[in-house]
Amino acid sequence: MTATHAPARTAVLQLTGVSKTFGAVQALKDIDFDVHAGEVVALVGDNGAGKSTLVKTIAGVYTPDSGRMVFGGRQVAVGSPAEAQQLGIATVFQDLALCDNLDVVANLFLGREIHRGRALDEVSMEQESWRLLRQLSAKIPSVRIPVASLSGGQRQTVAIARSLLGEPKVVMLDEPTAALGVAQTAEVLNLVERLRENGLAVILISHNMSDVMAVADRVNVLRLGRNNGTFAVSDTSSQEIIAAITGATTNAVSERASRREKTPDLGQADGPQLEKGTDR
To answer: What is the pLDDT of residues 55-69, one digit of tens each?
Structure first.
């Protein structure tokens, strides 16, 4: 499935025929997925569609039963989250995994502290913290305040900035705007755009169609563990995507919708949201 707007270039990350079972449950079946540098691809689907399983497979939490993953033009096998991180795949999960009692610098470098001799190199870590935050045009008043005192949007900023340590090529964001207000959501969406402008490949998992239509270049729909269409946001509407999510359209119809040239439906920017819940 190829979006009409995508240029002929090599994907940073490409999955082909990926399947995963848990006992008798087929969580993923023959999944194809790709993302390019400087592109935001949204991964959407109803509860139980397989989004979380696919994300954890890419992140090295799960090992696929079959299929292949190509990263940077070569086939790879990711056996753990540490291997995924070393490869250049960073993941910001929904719980953020931040320590509220520590300041921004300590959270950014937790487990990856810079030392000078036996002591921590606080100056270098603080300078690197500001560099990462400036790269994201972040609105953090100080890197020495506890994370507990930050807003939801600022906490997301810290988590995303931490994911940039090690200079990844792919960043996955799991429900980054969940439970955020309007202003904080706009702040996080701006961060997503900064990641794209910096040439990173971004995978956005979201139940919020307004967020998806606002920042994504393409939308990949999963339904019951299978691909059910890839849509170019500039050539489709939120209703077509929701139809693929709910099963009102088949995979073949979704592909035709993604290729059809039409005027962007700007009026759908505030489209309906899917009910959020636990996804297998």
So the answer is: 999 999 999 999 999
CATH number for 10-88+168-239+247-280 (one of 3.30.420.10, 2.120.10.90, 3.40.50.300, 3.40.630.30): it is 3.40.50.300
> Is 0.90 topped by the overall pTM?
no
Please name which of 18, 81, 78, 77 lies closest in space to residue 50, comparing C-alpha atoms: 18
DSSP letter string, 198-236: TT-EEEEE-S-HHHHHHH-SEEEEEETTEEEEEEEGGG-
Q: Contacts by 108-116 with C-beta closer than 8 Å and gap 24+?
A: 108/132, 108/143, 108/158, 108/161, 108/162, 108/165, 109/165, 110/162, 112/165
| CA–CA separation, 166 and 116 (whole Å) | 19
CB 91 within 8 A of CB 59: yes
